[in-house]
Design a protein that fits this description.
The chain is an alpha+beta fold. The protein folds into four domains: 92 residues, Rossmann fold (3-Layer(aba) Sandwich), CATH 3.40.50.20; 68 residues, Dna Ligase, domain 1 (2-Layer Sandwich); 145 residues, ATP-grasp fold, B domain (D-amino Acid Aminotransferase, Chain A, domain 1); 100 residues, Phosphoribosylglycinamide synthetase, C-terminal domain (Glycinamide Ribonucleotide Synthetase, Chain A, domain 4). Helices cover 31% and strands 25% of the residues. The strands form seven sheets. A five-stranded parallel sheet has the order 3-2-1-4-5. A five-stranded antiparallel sheet has the order 12-15-20-24-21. It has a four-stranded antiparallel sheet with strand order 6-9-7-8, sandwiched between helices. α6 packs across α9. The relative contact order is 0.14. Bound molecules: adenosine monophosphate and glycine. Glycine binds next to loops.
Length: 436
């Protein structure tokens, strides 16, 4: 197959890498890709959000499949555009991507489909929003409605923090139009996990569970990031919970969208909160609640989940894009996977770019994979940093301990000025083992 992967992060490198590992060989392109996709794919210099540019490339090159990585081009309607050209694309149409693009819309769909989630109210007026706070108690969660690159959520411990967040969004317009409406949401107690569900609008297949590490520092301290590491499977997701997640959370959303004329194809990523026995129960009465939906593969979850998938990946994606997912057999390997992000000093705040990365060849000789997140090559062929999250080291193993050790061996092999990483990836899985 001739396949175009849209995006330039660790997620897209992992998608391209997994496609390149199919038994059948494919012709793979990435737009724009990075230094890691260069070599397994042909990088084409078109930005992931350049809808017209990608459509033009697709018209001229006629790929069998386009796989869209990030949310922005999905929300902007890249898949709709490709559909009008008759080119199959993995990812939802814009009306489906709204599940990620508007938290208000996602809540509306969940309410209509009776999907358990935090109680929430929507406001566009700061005074009214503040007056509503008392109803929610503390902590309380304030969210910008639209896409804010993961920064539009404040978990407020005090009323003052909640009021500041409301003012930032509704008065100071810190997030522009994305913050023109805010959600005030019930705080959900528990442990988070990510479920990537593959769906063609009919069939739903849950990919292996994973858990992201969103805070920048060890012990889940410091500001939120795009994700500092992940591991799969996540033991917080017990096998007995999977039918509930599939039939009470994912499928009802897909069906509600269908009722509204939207056939959702691609990944519906459910960010879930699992309340422990004895934890504070949510108003929904369910132990498992939706924190958010995303319309795409997670990053870094993809780097940890895709190496665990066997079978013909390209066909699974194409079948999803064309409404034939039930013909695909998604094979999950029993191996565990752990992914450690190596980031630039300063991330998630400001950071420098253009640092030379060393040790990639050494790492390539070790078991596991170093995915590139924010890298590029200079004219001399050297690999330089070009983002906040730079590399994504994935180790595999028969136990989580072995997977984590393999990931950290990769981390030890590579370096660049200012590199840092979390040292406690998968700590919740190990905490559970200790408690048992
Ligand atoms: P989101 O962008 O909606 O995923 O929110 C970012 C992060 O904020 C989540 O990963 C959670 O850690 C936290 N969060 C969001 N909503 C809630 C909630 N209702 N209760 C507790 N934590 C939340
Ligand atoms: N890792 C969180 C996300 O992809 O949204």
């Amino acid at each position: 197959m001739k396949i175009l992967v849209v995006g330039s992060g660790g997620r897209e490198h992992a998608i391209a890498w997994r496609l390149a590992n199919d038994e059948t060989k494919h012709e793979i392109y990435c737009a724009p890709g990075n230094a890691g996709t260069d070599g397994i794919a042909v990088n084409v210099p078109i930005g992931a959000e350049d809808i017209a540019g990608i459509a033009k490339w697709a018209r001229e090159n006629n790929p069998n499949l386009v796989v869209v990585g990030p949310e922005a081009p999905l929300v902007k309607g890249l898949v709709d555009e490709l559909a009008s050209l008759g080119i199959p694309a993995f990812g939802p149409v814009a009306a489906g991507a709204k599940m990620e693009g508007s938290k208000r819309f996602a809540k509306e769909i969940m309410a209509a489909a009776n999907v358990p989630t935090g109680m929430a109210e929507v406001y566009d007026d700061a005074a009214k929003a503040k007056a509503a706070l008392d109803k929610f108690g503390l902590p309380v969660v304030i969210k910008a409605d639209g896409l804010a690159a993961g920064k539009g959520v404040v978990v407020a411990e005090t009323k003052e923090q909640a009021e500041t967040a409301i003012d930032d969004m509704l008065v100071a317009n810190k997030f522009g139009p994305a913050g023109a409406e805010v959600l005030i949401e019930e705080f959900l107690d528990g442990e988070e996990c990510s479920i990537l569900a593959m769906t063609d609008g009919e069939t739903v297949v849950l990919l292996p569970s994973s858990q992201d590490h969103k805070r920048v520092f060890d012990g889940d301290k410091g500001p939120n990031t795009g994700g500092m590491g992940a591991y799969s499977p996540a033991p917080v997701v017990e096998d007995a919970m999977l039918p509930y997640i599939k039939d009470r959370i994912v499928r009802p959303v897909v069906e509600e969208l269908k009722k509204r004329g939207v056939t959702y194809r691609g990944i519906l990523y459910a960010g879930l909160m699992v309340t422990p026995e004895g934890g504070k129960m949510a108003k929904s009465g369910s132990r498992i609640n939706v924190v958010e939906f995303n319309a795409r593969f997670g990053d870094p979850e993809t780097e940890t989940v895709l190496p665990r998938l066997g079978g013909d990946f390209a066909t699974a994606l194409l079948n999803t894009a064309t409404g034939r997912l039930k013909e695909s057999d998604i094979v999950v390997k029993s191996e565990c996977a752990a992914t450690v992000i190596i980031a630039s000093a300063g991330y998630p705040g400001s950071y420098e770019k253009g640092k030379k990365i060393t040790g990639l060849e050494k790492a390539a000789a070790l078991p596991g994979i170093v995915f590139h997140c924010g890298t590029k090559k200079n004219d001399a062929g050297e690999t330089l940093t070009s983002g906040g999250r730079v590399l994504s080291a994935t180790g595999l193993g028969t136990t989580m301990r072995e997977a984590v050790d393999n990931a950290y061996a990769l981390v030890a092999a590579v370096d660049f000025e200012g590199a840092f990483h979390r040292k406690d990836i998968a700590h919740r899985a190990f905490d559970r083992e200790t408690k048992r």
